[in-house]
């Protein structure tokens, strides 16, 4: 009888341990981003970009299963702001966003320029004051939109000559630029080059109008509702990938932009 009770107690302990372990194993992360060269873009229907293999290495090292989703930026932001176990990239780290996310690690810094079309030579921009007279295509909920508004730019209205024209992603902005629906778009040099390769376009049709006085520090971040044990695990393995050169291998070309 005593042995039987001990056996039952041992079985109970095993079941209890299983109940403790199973939730951790059952956790699945959603990694969200947007179709935004040069980080993530489509080539013949397939996802490409330097962030993909790096994210895969990180999640494998952390032993966290995940699914990868490409959404309009506003939707990716909404998920990362309100749902648990969500990772988002490439998210600009700003003072306004500091408390809203767990910041896993920096991916790259990028300089932003206003680009227009070569054929519209009448557009000359030598200051932010002149830039405010342009129709500028900007991604909704993007940090560039926040930056423009903080620097005195307003959204485009039917009666205004210039202003910010909001779209869901950069591909829409670039199409508007090519069709003359906006005068300029704020992108990095490498993002523009990647877009041209993706669309099989001659990049010579675009010209740099004005270097914006802004640099985006782009990060991989976790939603605030993500448990701290997962955040700490991801940060640890992010540092390991920096130390072993995986981070440099993935993002060195972007850092040169």
Spatial gap, N to C terminus: 75 Å
CATH domain fold name of the largest domain: D-Maltodextrin-Binding Protein, domain 2
Structural shape? globular
- Element string (H = helix, E = strand): HEEEHEHEEHEHEHEHEHH
Quaternary status: single chain
Report the β-strand fraction as a percent range: 25-35%
CATH class type of the largest domain? Alpha Beta
Folded structure, characterized:
This protein has 257 residues and is of the alpha/beta class. It folds into two domains: 27-109 and 217-255, Periplasmic binding protein-like II (D-Maltodextrin-Binding Protein, domain 2); 110-214, Periplasmic binding protein-like II (D-Maltodextrin-Binding Protein, domain 2), CATH 3.40.190. The protein contains nine helices and ten strands. The strands form three sheets. A six-stranded mixed sheet has the order 4-1-5-10-6-9, sandwiched between helices. It has a two-stranded antiparallel sheet with strand order 2-3. The protein has a two-stranded parallel ribbon with strand order 7-8. Helix 5 (143-150) links the parallel strand 7 (135-139) and strand 8 (163-167). It starts with a helix and ends with a helix. 32% of the residues are buried. Residues 1-24 have low confidence and may be disordered.
Which key terms come to mind for this protein?
six-stranded mixed β-sheet, D-Maltodextrin-Binding Protein, domain 2, alpha/beta, two-stranded antiparallel ribbon, 2 domains, 257 residues
List the helices and strands and how they pair.
Elements: H1 2-26, E1 29-33, E2 41-43, E3 46-48, H2 51-62, E4 66-70, H3 73-82, E5 86-92, E6 101-117, H4 128-131, E7 135-139, H5 143-150, E8 163-167, H6 170-178, E9 185-187, H7 189-199, E10 206-223, H8 228-243, H9 246-255
Parallel strand pairs: 1-4, 1-5, 7-8
Antiparallel strand pairs: 2-3, 5-10, 6-9, 6-10
